[in-house]
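Reminder to self: tokens first, then the designed residues, so the page reads top to bottom the way the pipeline ran.
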């Protein structure tokens, strides 16, 4: 889901940047903490997974919510439970890479040192697309994997049709120049990009012609 929102090129750059930044942070944390049990770091992509979980938390909006014992639980809970089980399975030896991954992902989201704008050079992308991608690229994602994205798009289409029918039934309404910004699109983008202000989200919708998908790409 995160890759679908980022796009393949940005997602690959994210993994590369966060991978190196998290490794540097692991060294810093080990030197600062100097705790014997934390100095023994278990192998595995814990930093990358923690970084992805952080992005999943911030940029992927929940599509359903259920209340259990007064707590609002979303459909994203399953991912968090699996991540927690993975972390505690080798605790505390994977604590340092997990914390480093979250910190690296936070730095990426805040665009510290312009990390979020880094991309692989065009010649490298062309080489990978021509000689590597045909052998390792996966088939298009199944409907089960894309459920969250498709449900979001369906809700947006339903909202668009509703407003289209409403506008057709009230021809006397005064129409202003420029695209009409949907409040539902604003709320959806606020859930996907909580670090962005309402003014930035509205500006992205105006620039994209009230297209929430294009606006999300501009904001991300």
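Designed residues (220 positions):
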């Amino acid at each position: 889901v995160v890759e679908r929102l980022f796009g393949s090129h940005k997602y690959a750059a994210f993994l590369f940047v966060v991978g190196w930044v998290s490794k540097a942070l692991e060294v810093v944390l080990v030197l600062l903490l100097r705790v014997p049990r934390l100095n023994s770091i278990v192998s595995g992509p814990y930093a990358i997974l923690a970084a992805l979980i952080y992005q999943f938390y911030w940029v992927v909006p929940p599509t359903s919510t259920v209340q259990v014992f007064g707590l609002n639980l979303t459909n994203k809970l399953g991912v968090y439970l699996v991540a927690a089980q993975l972390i505690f399975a080798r605790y505390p030896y994977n604590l340092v890479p997990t914390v480093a991954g979250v910190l690296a992902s936070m730095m990426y989201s805040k665009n510290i040192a312009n990390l979020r704008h880094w991309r692989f050079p065009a010649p490298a992308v062309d080489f990978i697309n021509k000689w590597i991608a045909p052998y390792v690229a996966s088939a298009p994602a199944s409907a089960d994997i894309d459920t969250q994205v498709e449900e979001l798009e369906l809700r947006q289409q339903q909202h668009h049709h509703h407003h289209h029918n409403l506008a057709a039934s009230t021809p006397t309404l005064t129409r202003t120049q420029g695209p009409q910004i949907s409040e539902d699109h604003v709320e959806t983008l606020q859930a996907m990009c909580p670090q962005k202000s309402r003014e930035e989200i509205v500006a992205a919708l105006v620039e994209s012609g009230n297209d929430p998908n294009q606006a999300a790409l501009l904001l991300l």
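The beta strands are 65-68, 71-74.
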